[in-house]
């Protein structure tokens, strides 16, 4: 069954629909016929068109609603109450109404009706009667006077009446439905909505009227300036509730829906509400307003006035940020919701200064850029990244266009309070690149600068910087001259002790002052060069020894300070005393220790480790959409917090080794990053021209120092990790334990990273000995096994002849590489690893193989004395034919755990070395006494 | 736990004088339970107490053949002590010993403790080198001297003990007084002929150092 209210609703809709049709033909259509004569009328026409469209939509919805009501009345049993558009589509109906109100008030504020009506006043005079009749029919008091107000009234009156009736009928309809019925809820909901719409409409009309009334009080210039946009509404006027403004001066303050306007004489100061923050001041009589470039306070005459302004401004800001008016209208809540402090907006700075004319687009907080954002200057400069308190802070990419088109300086860096600080990569428009640390916008600490390949003087610098200049220990490579400078710098010049290596392999240490070598004249230079070239011939002097052929290794010369020293000794090492290894790469470790000492703060992780971004080329391409697309460390598993969490879980030797291995190979781990940087410095120093045998000592001590430093770095991280867990800190280990960890644990993990360059230096250093050794090997390889055993005076009873299943004749003549095969093959495995300890283990296994073979031959266990062992070992070594054995041996010895000194491994290595030396000299003996076996 | 001091000891001398035999005797006589790895008879270790320390001898054998002499410096570098062995029945071996001493003085590590062992003293009836000669020579160069027999285990322990004490004293002169009292106590409790001879010798050398 249908209630009478439904029938009334249907009638209501029918009447309203007819009224709308009437309005359309009587009012809107004629208004739209006006010919726009000036800008104002053109604008009026536009607003009227919008109103027309809104009214059409309103009419359509009404028709729809009418239809649903009729359906319901005709088939009350099959069609439920909820099928009414007013109930199930209440929001849509409401929306159309709000839209209509908006368009209507827009026209009202712009006085569009008056404007349009003026054009065809004759027409309206004729129509006046009809209109009045129409309004009278709608239940309105008739209007006398001008056409304008009549039109205004005719467009509003039917709507107000209609909504009023909606509410009334829906409420009565609700009463007819019993409690708890689901449709009752729907009805009540719709009634509430339309109730709210009533207050919304009246507020909108009030605001529109206030705005309309405002214009005549302003000068026409001000009016023209302020009347746009069309939906601007006055919310508060200091003429109604007076306020004084300071320190800015204003004789009138207008609060609009979208902006706050200060008027001072003819001067207008407009603030976009989206970038206005209201801070209720300390004292309750003032109200602080923050904007991107201004800060001022309002002071009302009394607390009520103060509260009114604060409430209005706060609400306006909030609604401006939402982009729509409140619905339902806010009541007089004691605590209205605050607008968010952090916002995302664009703004162009106007005030003179660094940011003048720059546009910031991004996150703001309390009047300042804060969070992620983009700053663009009109000259093409741009900065994308993190901001804090209005300054660049955190990761950022800055592009600075160069004079030449399409060329940019690109800074991908960490910033602190507006300047570069921490790790950064700068790719300059010229093609130069700097990768390293900054402080206060200048290169500072460790960094690598590489000029463009096309530069007139291509160069590369790897080392320390101070306030933008090369200063401290550093490597300078002059690509043109093929010169390599390793040493001290000051104020961008070579200054202090340095080692110079030339492409020709000449290497000397000298003192530099202001980029010039002191105490070394050019002729002397040439003379020394000559000496160096003649060195092989000169240095082949016999050494005195108690036994013929015995030699004593020359003690390694300590490099002293100036004047330049040249040495004819092939093993002479340069730079050893000059650049103390403890402080050589201080700048690499510095940022790490700063980080650890600060307790490893997560937000500084990137400043330490660097970051992953696209190349500058890609950046430039996508400059329009510059956004900080980089893998954020906090999302990956490598966040410093996780890392410190894991660190103390791997303390047992095996686990620790695994952990360190992983950490060192991961460039996002502080230890891995350190290693990466150290590899860079190592390659810069010792590869290319730097691969000079006189630098082996420098390189060798550097690698060991790195192992020590990395262990200390691990300990540093561990302390922070333990502190975070609230556990007791570790006591400092004693020197012995530390050395043990450094050599047993860290060095083997580290060595592979430095091995290529390091081994090359050893190769070069022992080149001559190794070539003699190779000759020796070649000579010995001509011998059949038995002949060689005989030649080496291996006692006959130890010969593994059972291994040879050949005739006696063949044994003497042909057989090669058959005896002690297992030992030989074992020894050959030595070059498959870089870990000195593993190499030594290979050596020990080789010995065990020899011992096993001998024991087998003798049929009993046999302990080999040196008299027997040495010849056998020489035999095995000569057959194993390991290349560059001298370099290998010396590398092992230098990198060996010092606790092995004098022990088993030392003994084995010495035995191997003595074999090597013997073979090296045996070569000469072979030439001296060839008759001994050729007679056979 | 007592501190362990490692002493690298290098064996020098002609082939056949009994170097390997001396070490085997020394190491194997008192077979201790913790067998440390060895390289046959070429590298062996043995730990003995000395004063309030433990001395771990790292004994490096060398090849005695003439052709390998030139390789010896690699073996004796970094040695705390060198045991130079001669055969009392072979004058030649004593001659070689002198050459070793000379080389060590010139090229060996500084402060190396030299110990001269006249081996095969069980064969004193066919002796060629008188004990007096050896003693005079040892005194002259400031070395420990003792006649040993690897075969009969005579003076082997004492040889190494001597090295221990001398090494200790040489490194730490401030311990001299302590050691002297200790030596005196030892001589009172164990007044064997060999022991006292050795102690006397030590007192001499200690006095020389001081
Ligand atoms: N009679 C006797 N013979 C000894 C003594 N020490 C070693 N020998 C023998 O001397 C020979 C050479 O000994 P060895 O230890 O191989 O001398 P090495 O070449 O110096 O190592 C072997 O036959 C031993 O048996 C000893 O004290 N007395
Ligand atoms: Mg031997």
List the topology elements.
The complex is a heterodimer of chains A (936) and B (210).
Chain A: H1 4-32, H2 39-74, H3 85-88, H4 90-109, H5 112-119, H6 121-137, H7 147-176, H8 182-214, H9 220-226, E1 234-237, E2 243-246, E3 252-256, E4 259-264, E5 267-272, E6 277-280, E7 286-290, E8 295-300, H10 303-322, E9 342-348, E10 359-365, E11 368-376, E12 382-388, E13 391-401, E14 408-416, E15 419-427, E16 433-439, E17 442-450, E18 459-466, E19 469-478, E20 483-490, E21 493-501, E22 507-513, E23 516-518, H11 522-539, H12 586-597, H13 605-609, H14 616-621, H15 640-646, H16 653-665, H17 670-686, H18 696-724, H19 735-765, H20 767-781, H21 785-791, H22 808-813, H23 821-828, H24 836-858, H25 866-880, H26 885-895, H27 904-928, H28 931-934
Antiparallel strand pairs in A: 1-3, 2-8, 3-4, 4-5, 6-7, 7-8, 9-10, 10-11, 11-12, 12-13, 13-14, 14-15, 15-16, 16-17, 17-18, 18-19, 19-20, 20-21, 21-22, 22-23
Chain B: E1 3-13, H1 19-29, E2 43-50, E3 53-60, H2 72-76, E4 81-87, H3 91-107, E5 113-119, H4 131-141, E6 144-147, H5 156-171, H6 176-189, H7 193-209
Parallel strand pairs in B: 1-3, 1-4, 4-5, 5-6
Antiparallel strand pairs in B: 2-3
The structure holds guanosine-5'-diphosphate and magnesium ion.
